[in-house]
Backbone:
């Protein structure tokens, strides 16, 4: 009896979730349809009216004129947004980005330039939609330069055309030839083509996703090699560093006081002193200071080489 009741509850919950999903999709589609229908009913502006509204916003900051200008060209924004549906972004988001681009265009439009607002707005709308698509294509930034942006939106189309033309001509293109032709066609560097090809070849995957059902929940992150130093390596490195430090201290202490001073001032300061400044302080010529420095390093080298034969290779 309890098992049957549990099955009934799960069935009801499953139906509720399914109905909620269908309802959400239906509401989203209804909003899209309502916005599109409203945009299609908006007035069509002639050049004179468009110019008057643009002047009213630029010179008088007339918000009613701005709203009327944006509303009239909302159909253009929606039309351009629909062309980017194939990139997987929700239509609502695309329309929103297109609207933002349209508003930027209306705000920056200069009616004195003698061009129609629609011609000017197309660039802003397209740029806004493209930026949104590239930002949301992957968690890894897809591209930031103009060449990478051009590749992202044109590479597949150009590649399909080149492959089709080669097939008609009875030719066979390898990957390298195809990349070179795409690079020449779009006018971008070869390495950008190779990079974008890798970016577009697949979607993002979580490192916490299981590799397969047979691996008993083994995640992809478990297959990554740990590049950090292991405990044994850290102990060995610390021991070697301490030993070398003690050898260096012993070699320095074997020098006389003047030689220690020259080595310390020339090699152990953040801003090493010049031979000339040391000569003035020690009342010696610059050449004599250089000779003393070379002699001190020679003594240190001999001292260190007596400690271990490996130090000789370290000093070479």
Residues:
């Amino acid at each position: 009896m309890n098992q049957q009741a549990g099955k009934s509850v799960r069935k009801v919950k499953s139906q509720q979730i399914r109905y909620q999903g269908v309802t959400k999709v239906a509401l989203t589609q209804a909003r899209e349809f309502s916005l599109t229908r409203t945009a299609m009913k908006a007035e069509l502006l002639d050049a004179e009216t468009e110019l008057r509204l643009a002047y009213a916003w630029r010179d008088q900051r007339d918000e009613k004129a701005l709203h009327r200008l944006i509303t009239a060209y909302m159909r253009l924004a929606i039309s351009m947004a629909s062309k980017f549906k194939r990139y997987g972004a929700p239509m609502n988001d695309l329309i929103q980005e297109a609207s933002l681009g349209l508003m930027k265009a209306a705000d920056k439009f200069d009616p004195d330039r003698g061009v129609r607002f629609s011609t000017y707005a197309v660039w802003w709308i397209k740029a806004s939609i493209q930026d949104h698509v590239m930002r949301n294509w992957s968690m890894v930034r897809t591209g930031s330069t103009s060449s990478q942006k051009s590749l992202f939106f044109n590479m597949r189309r150009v590649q399909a055309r080149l492959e089709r033309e080669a097939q008609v001509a009875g030719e066979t293109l390898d990957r390298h030839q195809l990349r070179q032709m795409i690079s020449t066609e779009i006018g971008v560097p070869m390495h950008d083509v190779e990079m974008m090809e890798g970016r577009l070849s697949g979607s993002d995957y979580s490192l916490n996703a299981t590799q397969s059902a047979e691996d008993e929940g083994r995640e992809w992150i478990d297959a990554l090699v740990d590049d950090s130093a292991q405990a044994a390596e850290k102990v060995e490195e610390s021991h070697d560093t301490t030993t070398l430090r003690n050898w260096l201290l012993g070699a320095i202490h074997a020098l006389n006081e003047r030689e220690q001073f020259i080595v310390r001032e020339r090699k152990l300061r953040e801003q090493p002193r010049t031979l000339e400044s040391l000569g003035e302080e020690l009342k010696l010529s610059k050449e004599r200071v250089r000779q003393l420095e070379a002699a001190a390093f020679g003594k240190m080298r001999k001292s260190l080489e007596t400690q271990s034969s490996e130090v000789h290779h370290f000093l070479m």
